[in-house]
Amino acid sequence: MDTLPFRVATPVELDQLGPAALRDKLAGPPHLALPWLGGAAVAGHLDAQMVLGQWFLAGHGVTRDEAQAFAWFKHAAHAGHAGAANLAGRCYENGWGTAHDDRAAAHWYTLAAERGSDWGMYNLATALVLGRGLAPDRRAALGWYERAAALGHAKSLNIVGSFHEDGWEVAQDPARAAAYYRQAAEGGDFRGQFNHARMLALAGREAEAQQWIRLVPQTATGPFIDKMLAFLRDAPQHALQRLYAHADQAARAARAAQPAPAATAA
After folding, report:
1. What is the pLDDT of residues 47-71, one digit of tens each?
2. Closest Cα to residue 88, out of 123, 129, 135?
3. CB-based contact 196:185 (threshold 8 Å)
């Protein structure tokens, strides 16, 4: 763990720099920040270890190296870092730098959630819903989604809304569902934005619904956009059908704004 493929700042250099100047260094260009980030990670700073793992995983400022990413996540997670525990779980779930192992993923998600990570709570809840790596338990999943939602986790807010809309483990409550969807939308979750727009349209607030539906394609995945358009186009409610044109126009604009693929030599 102490050997990295680039020069790292020494403990003496880190001490001389000081915490405020170190934060400035880490906010700078990756090639200038990397020696300081690596030095802080090697010196035992848990946040730095997690961030260094994220840089290796994304290939940000360094050559992408899933094994290095996984090693740094595990190192920080074993020392008690909640976010790193969640990312260790993600590595096990997706086979990044280690063999795919749903049970190990669930173990690390549980530790992350218990340590207070909202993403750990969300990922543990999802594993409980799907029965992935542990026995399925939708009631327990709702509890973890609610805890993450209480921390402002937008994706969890949207899912708690769906529990209340569909009556999963709770009595159906469209008004409460709509309130959760609004919070998810305001938090930037594209699924929450879609659900919020849908509920507004059905409540007769179509002008507001149109504003929210236009935001969805800015961050949504391609498959979700396709499903959204098909849902609106084929919906039996006229209010939802009228949203289709606005959603389609926004989707076309978002796709047109995407950078063209780089040209390759023949």
Report:
1. 999 999 999 999 999 999 999 999 9
2. 123
3. yes
Nearest to 47 by CA among 9, 76, 17: 76
| pTM to 2 decimal places | 0.91
Give me the torsion for CA of 244, 208, 178, 201, rounded to 10°: -40
- Of 58, 59, 61, the closest CA to residue 37 belongs to 61
Under a CB-based contact definition with an 8 Å cutoff, are residues 8 and 38 in contact? Answer: yes
pLDDT at 235: 98
**Separation of alpha carbons 156 and 135, rounded Å:** 20
- Please state which CATH class domain 153-255 belongs to: mainly alpha
Tokens for 162? 């769906």
Q: Which residue has the tokens 């003496």?
A: 12
Give the pair of three-digit tokens for residue 25: 């260094």
User: Is residue 255 scored above 60 in pLDDT?
Assistant: yes
- For 260, which DSSP code? P
Phi, psi of 16 (to 5 degrees): -65, -30
pLDDT of residue 22: 84
Q: Give the CA distances from residue 146 to residues 62, 112, 119, 161, in Å, rounded to whole numbers and listed in that order.
A: 37, 16, 12, 10
* Cα separation values, 258 from 141, 181, 190, 219, 221, Å: 36, 28, 17, 12, 13
